[in-house]
Request: fold
Amino acid sequence: MNKQDKKFEKELIKALTLCCEEFKTTISGFEWLTHTVNFSNIAQSIKIICVFKDNDTLEDAKVKDELTHITNALVDCLKNLGITLKKSAQHIRFDSEENCNLSHEGNWQKRLNQQYS
Reply:
């Protein structure tokens, strides 16, 4: 990763952290988020994975249309960094700790590599 990529990554992490902290305080069951990105093609490769406590809280957030709120906030966040997503559903995903425990024995690194790369 070159110096420019490192600087951008730092800005991206800062912006996503602010969003994450807001979601944790306003959306029941929201736990954390992470991202993956290939710096040679950021707009096409970025993926943001939003993680809920379990499938019940994820489903509840769907029913309450909170996933739309999360998606819109993240799209705005990325837009402020100069990243425009053409199809947010391809870049913003929702998951749960429960799913990771069931499928990957709680190993998020393995899950991220298999599910979101």
Remarks:
- The CA atoms of residues 77 and 103 lie 30 Å apart.
- The first strand starts at residue 30 and ends at 36.
